[in-house]
Structure formats: C-alpha cells, structure tokens
Write a structure and sequence with these properties.
Layout lengths: L1 H6 L10 H22 L1 H11 L13 H16 L3 H27 L5 H22 L6
Helix pairs in contact: 2-3, 3-6, 4-6, 5-6
C-alpha cells in the first residue's frame, strides 16, 4: 500500500500537467479508501458481502431478536451508568463482544465454501456492538 501510495502521490506529478495531477489525486484517494476498508473489519465484511451481491447490512431488518434484546440491555446499562468505572467495565465487556464477532466473521469467510449468510448475520452483530462502543466513548456523566 505504501509503495503504491508513494508511486501515485500527486506531488510526484506536479510537473506533468493538470490532468496527470488530477488522475494521481483520484488514484491516491482510491488507495486510501481501499486501505481504510481493509483496516476496518466491519467495512471489510460489508465490502466482501457486496461483491457477492448481498444486500448491505445497513438496511438489515432481520437481526436476531435475542441480539436486539442484548443490545437494548447494554444500551440501558450505559444510559444508567453513573461513573466512569461502570462505563469502563461495560466497554471491556463490549470489547470482548466486538473481538468475538470479528473472529467469527473471519471463520465464516474462511470456511470452504465461505458461509456468506453467517458472515452477514455476524456483520450485523458487529455493527451493533461497534455502535455501543461509540456510544460508550461519547458517554459523559449526568449532572
């Protein structure tokens, strides 16, 4: 990635003309976007699923009711938290959930043949847990 980024950096094309600079900017941006997708487990799963013509998980309404119950319970716990310590405990528990979902997604994609339906369900789960993670990061004590 870094090698390709160096080769296509727009500054290397500044003496070549405006068209070449614009193309280098475009390609450099695409490399950055691709790298961001590869580095984010959820975005990577969404991309792989999209290459198999599966609907995006953003509109998935088939989430497991048990999972939704867990998410609601965790959200309520976060909303009722009164201390940084309580939120940190919740974040640690949730971090384990996120890691477990990531590992399960890897296994689903790595099976032969890949378990795309399972990966899709797990990606939805990961999305919910990452949403809780973001909410916990943004948590502030109620005054």
């Amino acid at each position: 990635m870094l090698t390709r980024q160096k080769e296509l950096h727009p500054d290397k094309f500044s003496s070549k003309g405006e068209n070449e600079v614009a193309l280098a900017r475009e390609l450099s941006g695409r490399i950055n976007d691709a790298f961001a997708v590869l580095m984010d487990p959820l975005r990577r799963a969404e991309y792989i699923l999209s290459t198999h013509a599966l609907a995006t998980i953003e509109t998935d309404s088939t989430a497991d009711p048990e999972l939704l119950g867990e998410i609601l319970e965790a959200r309520e716990e976060l909303e009722s938290a009164t201390s940084v310590e309580a939120v940190e405990t919740l974040r640690q528990v949730n971090s384990s959930r996120v890691q477990a979902a990531i590992e399960s997604i890897k296994e689903a994609f790595g099976s032969d043949p890949p378990n795309l339906a399972g990966a899709r369900i797990l990606a939805v789960k990961l999305k919910y847990w990452q949403g809780l993670e973001e909410a916990a990061k943004d948590w502030t004590p109620k005054l």
